[in-house]
Design a protein that fits this description.
8 strands, 275 residues, eight-stranded mixed β-sheet, elongated, 13% strand, alpha/beta
Length: 275
C-alpha cells in the first residue's frame, strides 16, 4: 500500500486507468486519490465508480497531495503548470504523462528543485496491459522512482530509461498501438476478402496478435525463432511472408517509428521554446 495522497490533474482515460489499476492492485485506497477535471459530470462519474475524491480546483488538489500526476493534454500542460506552481514545493513528487514535454520545460515552471519524473505509458494501460517508460529528473530520488514504478506497474510493465530515449519510446510503444490496430484491421479485411464473416475475421486477427505477443513474452524467444516455427518448407506462412517482405512491411514499420520519434522531438522542442 502506498501511504501517499495522489492527485491526478486531468481526469481523462489515462488518469482513470491509473486510478482503476491502483485500486484493483490494492496499492492505494480511494480516499487517498484525488481527481480534477473541468467537467462536473466527469468527476461525478469517477466518484460514483471508484469512490475517489474529486474537485475542479487544481490548486486545492495539489495542496493536499504528496504525489501530483500531470495527466492533462500537452497542449494545456503549460497553463496548468503556471496555475499550480505556487503549491508545488520540493516535498512533492511530480509525475508527468504528457507526451513530448521535456523535464527541463517543467522545471522552469515549477522551480529548480522540483522532483519530477516523466512517464510515457500507452493506451493498453486501460486494460491493465500497458507498457510504460519512466525517466527521473535530477532531483528525483530512488524512493520517488520506486513510487512511480508502483503506480505504473498497477496497469502494466515499466522500464527506466534516460530522458533522451523517451521520444523513441513515444514513437515505438506510445504510438505503437495505432500501428497494431491498423495491422489487425488489415488482417481482418483480408479475412473478409477470402471469405470469412467480418466478426470472425476480426476476432481471429485480434487473438492472433494477442497470442503471438504473449508467446514471445512468456518464452523469451527471439521473434525470428518463433517465426521459423510457423514457416514450414513450401508452406502457407512462407508464401505470406514473401508477400509481406515484397510489400516492404518491415521497412514501413521502421519508418513509422522513426517518423513518430522525430515528431515527438519536434513537439518537445516547441514546448521548450514556448517556456
Amino acid at each position: 500500500m502506498l501511504d501517499r495522497t495522489i492527485a491526478f490533474l486531468g481526469a481523462g482515460n489515462m488518469a482513470e486507468a491509473l486510478i482503476k489499476g491502483l485500486l484493483r492492485a490494492g496499492t492505494a485506497r480511494p480516499e487517498s486519490l484525488i481527481a480534477t477535471a473541468r467537467r462536473a459530470d466527469r468527476l461525478e462519474t469517477l466518484q460514483r465508480t471508484y469512490g475517489v475524491r474529486v474537485t475542479q480546483d487544481n490548486l486545492a488538489a495539489v495542496r493536499e497531495a504528496d504525489v501530483v500526476v500531470l495527466s492533462v493534454k500537452p497542449q494545456v500542460l503549460d497553463k496548468v503548470l503556471l496555475q499550480v506552481a505556487s503549491e508545488v514545493d520540493p516535498r512533492k513528487l511530480v509525475i508527468s504523462v504528457a507526451a513530448g514535454v521535456p523535464i527541463a520545460a517543467m522545471q522552469r515552471r515549477l522551480g529548480a528543485g522540483a522532483r519530477i519524473i516523466r512517464a510515457m505509458p500507452n493506451t493498453p494501460s486501460l486494460v491493465g496491459a500497458g507498457a510504460c517508460a519512466l525517466s527521473p529528473g535530477e532531483h528525483a530520488s530512488e524512493e520517488d522512482l520506486a513510487i512511480a514504478t508502483r503506480i505504473f506497474q498497477s496497469v502494466g510493465t515499466t522500464t527506466v530509461l534516460d530522458e533522451n530515449l523517451l521520444d523513441a519510446v513515444t514513437g515505438l510503444s506510445g504510438s505503437g498501438p495505432a500501428y497494431i490496430f491498423l495491422i489487425i484491421e488489415a488482417l481482418s479485411d483480408a479475412g473478409v476478402k477470402v471469405g470469412l464473416p467480418r466478426y470472425t475475421a476480426l476476432k481471429l486477427a485480434a487473438q492472433t496478435v494477442l497470442g503471438s505477443a504473449q508467446l514471445l513474452i512468456e518464452t523469451n524467444a527471439h521473434p525470428g525463432q518463433l517465426k521459423d516455427q510457423v514457416t514450414s518448407p513450401g508452406g502457407t506462412a512462407i508464401a505470406g511472408l514473401h508477400t509481406l517482405e515484397a510489400g516492404g512491411l518491415r521497412t514501413t514499420l521502421i519508418n513509422a517509428v522513426e517518423a513518430a520519434t522525430r515528431r515527438a522531438k519536434e513537439l518537445g522542442e516547441q514546448f521548450l521554446e514556448k517556456s
